[in-house]
Protein 1
Amino acid sequence: MSRYFIRPETVSAFGFDWGRLALTVGPSVNGAERFSGGIVTVQPGGGHSRHNHPGAEEIILVLSGSGTQMVEDDDGTPITQDVGPGCTIYVPESRFHATLNTGAGPMTLFVVYSPAGPEQLLRDLPDFRLLPPGS
């Protein structure tokens, strides 16, 4: 496997009741040092609840599907908007946010965390399971 060209089906993924995250870039995947990221698939009606990544910023790009995205503003007020393909969501450092798939099919996102690392905390969630490549 090339460290420069990585497809989500060639790496293990983090599985959850609501979907999955396949990390395609990061320290443990290809040696990236300043960020990590990958493909998130959110099943219809699923989503992740309000959470944050202390010390990290996040970028979310909606590749397909539709849903709602919540990001809290500077005062902690939740700002929620409908999102779809092509929408980029910026989550400032340590800011609480949540994603919900409101569409009939899977919602696919590309996410980037900077610095790398906060995605590893997802392993502590009660519904976490490690999925082998290709599953």
Protein 2
Amino acid sequence: MEKENLTPAKFADMLNINRAVISHILNGRNNPSLDVVTKILGDMDYINPEWLINGTGNMYKNGIDPESLPKEPDLFNQREIFSGESKTINKNHEESGSNSPVIDSQQSENKQFEQSTKPAKKITQIIIYYNDNTFERFNPN
């Protein structure tokens, strides 16, 4: 998950399995089932099965370049998210040779926007449910 920049939740969602399954595996409560291993190898066909099952050998199959694999964007690798902007920024950054990012500035027009007036929301009722199947209602009036 670390190499793929995946959180446990994103990893579980990617495999279409319950998030609790990944949590139990990571906490040492359960070992991965055959179903989980099969889903990992099916969705991530570049992972070496021997490494996944036995922990031996390389993580990636022979001939697979880990740097060429698409990665989930993270805080430091967000090129996928802002694809339209980052190409321009990164290209200018590489050409300038400086350490500070170069951002194309665009002229903006001053426009006036009317603020929509919606009626203020007011709390009309609060209901508290207790674990003994009872509840209380509160009205602020």
